[in-house]
Amino acid sequence: MLWEPDRMPFLQINAGPEGPALHATPQPLRPSLTQALRAQGPIIIMTHGFKFAPGQGLDCPHNHILSLSPLSRCWKTLSWPRHLGYGAGHRDEGLGIAFGWAGRGTIWQAYRQARNAGHSLAHLIRMIHQIAPGRPIHLIAHSLGARVVLSALHDLPGDSIRRAILLCGAEYIETAKAALSTDAGRSAEIINVTTRENDLFDFLLERLIPPARFRENRSLGRGLPDLSNTLNLQLDHPATLARLSRAGFSIAPAKTRICHWSAYLRPGVFPFYRDLLRHPDDWPISELRTALPYQPDPHWTRLRRLAPRILPVARPETAALP
């Protein structure tokens, strides 16, 4: 937990066995959260995906992408908090929350843990609303972090979340539909950021983790349903990049065929995400839906010649995953 009086508060919080807890300290969460919520400005909760876990050295998200000053020198390391506008000491920075959860182990273990972490995230969001009623809360999540966010919607009342950005979400469309049908899901704005660079990872999810209760299902990379509160934003779509450029956001075009991290590593993406979360009224989702192409390009557009054959390889014992 980081706190500097008269400056920007930034909290490191983890999904614990008893609910959300401060990272690396036995101090109770509520007093620190109450103090931090005195700061004026947006509340943005950030969460990671697979292979990160609190307290696991350089694989700890609080030493990596969710840190103001990352210790990791991995090529995938980029400080989300700083790129979202935290750390400069301005009085209107608001509250940034780095939310860690146990995403290590096998992909099957991490997939289960992501759902559990969603319950803890919902607990945290309810606590924030108890302390500071009416404050809008925004979220941004990568990969399995999207499952964490969508799972949390089942445990929350309406108007709990203002806007969430899901980056290359590792979750199924039908699971997302169920989350969007909840009170919290109907009132939240969900921006589903996709890129055809992630097609291989979507394919692996669909093959390794069979969808629960559905014989046929597809990953979020194929697009969320067309609802008034959802937006599919394909980052390697030329028309999308051209229209964002005209709006003042110069986002670099995709340079790779395969990349799971492009949605946050691509030069120019974070100024756009920062504006979407810090100034949501300036970017109504209805106008974004009108201005940007809604339907993503078909899968394998970037890998058509290398597209693998669709062969089921899911483990039988995972067939009942929630």
Descriptive overview:
By secondary structure, the chain is an alpha/beta fold. Strands 2-1-4-3-5-6-7-8 form an 8-stranded mixed β-sheet, with helices on both faces. A hairpin with a 2-residue loop joins strand 1 and strand 2. Helix 3 packs across helix 4.
Q: Which labels suit this protein?
A:
disordered N terminus, single chain, alpha/beta, disordered C terminus, 322 residues
Layout of strands and helices, then pairs:
Elements: E1 10-16, E2 19-22, H1 29-36, E3 43-47, H2 80-83, E4 95-100, H3 107-131, E5 137-142, H4 145-153, E6 163-167, H5 173-180, H6 183-187, E7 189-194, H7 199-208, E8 230-234, H8 238-246, H9 262-265, H10 269-278, H11 285-291
Parallel strand pairs: 1-4, 3-4, 3-5, 5-6, 6-7, 7-8
Antiparallel strand pairs: 1-2
Helix pairs in contact: 3-4, 4-5
